[in-house]
Specification:
This protein is an all-alpha fold. It has 13 helices and 3 strands. It has a 3-stranded mixed β-sheet with strand order 2-1-3.
């Protein structure tokens, strides 16, 4: 880059995140709440990854996707919550321009990858339930790796394109970002000049990374529900519906809040609610996904108990083992 390009740079040196308001009396409770949420999210998702890797019985495509999801969730919430925790602790709401762009890039990468990974997971369940006779020949380890890699690759490409366009935009006016992290629309509102091309391209990419995987996920679950309705046993039908409904609820909340935030018009009323909607897909879903997708699963809970017993054997088991030595 030439020296003149550096002098004419339109990217400010720092931004100010408005968070959820500057109320000193709430900083300590919000810090403790956010810290608990972050620790529970990290521990829960890492446990799922460890269990899936450690237990040979879980080396199947379904649990491979679950391990990928938990890895994504760990990275995903780590782009948002640590910075938020630092703000609550120190009161410093500034973030450097490069740090802001880096946060947005990794957020977009992990969020887009998760959108497509959830679609791949629903497709895997569709094949397992509706095409059970040929499932093993269709969902091979090679196919599983390709689908997971495709999810990460799409996230990388879309986030790289949008971040590049945004970082080369001209920023003017206030440097205050009306959000608790560096997101696309709040940053775009700070730009000046003609943003038609950036806005149009971002809208197209938002449709590709949100609406398209959501429709694929919805179609898969509709086929799954149709198959469940054909189950003759009422007990089996109720059990299948219980699992399917919890998965579909989380998926609907995740995709639904994404669509509201990124695709609907920015009315003043909706703008005020966007932080709440963003909370759902940045904080709530990473927190509850290990419970909904994994820890409610009997095979996962049994494998978790087995791993925990190997790591921390009970005193009774140790006393029984001693005489046999």
């Amino acid at each position: 880059m030439e020296k003149g390009d550096l002098d004419n740079s339109t990217l400010p040196t720092e931004f100010i995140l408005l968070e959820i308001g500057n109320v000193p009396s709430l900083q300590a409770p919000l810090f403790l709440l956010s810290l608990i949420i972050y620790l529970v999210t990290i521990v829960g998702n890492i446990l799922v990854v460890v269990v899936v890797v450690a237990d040979q019985h879980l080396h199947t495509p379904m649990y491979f996707f679950l391990g990928n999801l938990s890895s994504l969730e760990t990275c995903y919430c780590s782009t948002i919550l640590p910075r938020l925790l630092a703000t609550f602790l120190t009161g410093d709401r500034t973030i450097s321009a490069r740090g802001c762009m880096a946060q947005f890039y990794f957020f977009a990468l992990f969020a887009t990858s998760e959108c497509y990974l959830l679609a791949m997971m629903s497709y895997d369940r569709y094949l397992a339930i509706c095409q059970s006779l040929i499932y093993a020949s269709l969902m091979t380890w090679k196919a599983s790796l390709q689908l997971a890699a495709a999810s990460w690759l799409v996230g990388f490409l879309i986030s790289a394109v949008v971040t590049s366009l945004l970082s080369h935009s001209s920023f003017c006016g206030p440097k205050e970002i009306d959000h608790f992290f560096c997101d696309f629309i709040p940053l775009l509102e700070l730009t000046c000049g003609d943003t038609t091309v950036v806005t149009l391209l971002a809208f197209i990419l938002s449709v590709l990374d949100t609406v398209f995987p959501f429709l694929l996920t919805l179609a898969s679950y509709m086929c799954i529900i149709t198959a469940i309705l054909r189950i003759p046993s009422s007990v089996g039908k109720q059990k299948a519906f219980s699992t399917c409904s919890s998965h579909l609820t989380i998926v609907s909340v995740f995709y639904g809040t994404f669509i509201i935030v990124y695709l609907l018009p920015r009315t003043p009323q909706l703008k005020q609610l966007n932080k709440v909607f963003s909370f759902f897909y940045t904080v709530l879903t990473p927190l509850v996904n290990p419970l909904i997708y994994s820890l409610q699963n009997r095979e996962v809970t049994e494998a978790l108990r087995k791993v925990l017993r190997e790591l921390w054997p009970s005193p009774r088991a140790q006393s029984i083992a001693v005489p046999g030595c």
